[in-house]
Amino acid sequence: MNKVIRFLPLILFILLAILLFRGLSLDPNAMPSALEGKDFPEFQLAQLQDDSKTLTKDDLGEGIKLVNVWATWCPGCKYEHPFLLKIANDKRFALYGVNYKDGREDALKWLQQYQDPFAFTVFDNDGKLGMDLGVYGAPETFVVDHNNRIRKRFAGILDEAVWQQQFEPLLLQLQQEMRSAANDS
Asked: Phi and psi (nearest 5°) for 159?
């Protein structure tokens, strides 16, 4: 018994080292979402630009959607914003914003200063929609299919490399699914 107690710190150190070493091989952007394959959550939130207008999931419309969670306090959001402006005119999907745990005036100034890539932005001041989506922080982007099912969650900064590797193949797949569904009708 005395020998076990003597080696206990060494055993604990080795176990901790193994856990930490394992953590180094994990991709922090590859955070799984329990909602992938499930319906986009219901919400009722004010539009950022017009607090008298309440928006819901139905306002997301038909087709493929990208929902980007952003905030003015988020340095990564500022970095990815030019890329969002670049993809905003892509006709294969609609781009929507969720302003997450932010100040309305700050967010409006941000969009005025850096331009607004979104079809509309909902104001999620309390973070309820973010919580329903399982958001850990901004930026995060969700791909929502034509059936309003979440098909992908990406936590991190969108840029050209991420877009080509992770989003383009999924968009092509979703377009094929939409064409097949239309042909079956």
From this structure: -145, 180
